[in-house]
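fold-stage: in
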Amino acid sequence: MAIPRRYAHVLFGVIQAGLTSAIASGVAVVAAPGAAPALQRWLSAWFLSWAMMLPVVVFAAPFIRRAVEALTAD
C-alpha cells in the first residue's frame, strides 16, 4: 500500500523531524543536568544538537528522499 505522491512532502517532513528530534532530544537530555540557568543550559544543548544534526540532515536527506519515493506512488 503506497502513499500518494502528492503527500511526499508531508512524509519527508515526518521522517526528517523524527530523525532530527530523536537525536537532538537525546543530546539535550544528556546536556541538561547542571546548576547553570535554564536559558544557558538550553542554548548550550541547542547549539550542541544543531552542530551534531547539521551533518546528519545534510547526509540523510538523499536517503530520506529515496525512502519517500519508494513509499509513495502517482
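fold-stage: in (second)
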Amino acid sequence: MASPSELVSVRYLVDDVDEAVAFYTTHLGFTVHTNVAPAFADVVRGSLRLLLSGSASSGARATPPDRSGSPGRNRINLPVDDIEAEVERLAAAGLSFASDLVSGPGGSQILLADPSGNLVELFQPRST
C-alpha cells in the first residue's frame, strides 16, 4: 500500500465508524488502514483513502454547526467493469440504491448511500 501522503483522501462524517468500516470493506473492496472507533477509521481502495470520522473525531468537531446537517450532493466515484453485475451483487447483499441506474454519453452510474447517508457513485465508463 502507498504511504498516506501518496493517497487521495476524502473525509466522510459518519454516524457509526464501525458500521461504516463494515460497509466499505464488505461491499466495496476497501481495506482497513487505521481503526480507532468510535472516533475515526480510514479505509483504502487503490489510491483513495476514505477518512471515516465519527462525532468524537477532530474532523467532525471542525465542521461549523450550520454545515453539520445531512450529507450533500457530493460523492466519491468508484469505477466498475460491469455495473449491472455490481448492482445485482449489492442488491443481493440487501443494499438499496439512492438512485436508478442511468446512462449518458460518458457511461452508466448509480448512487448507493452508506449507512450515514453519504453517497457513493458506482460508474462504468462508456466503452470506446
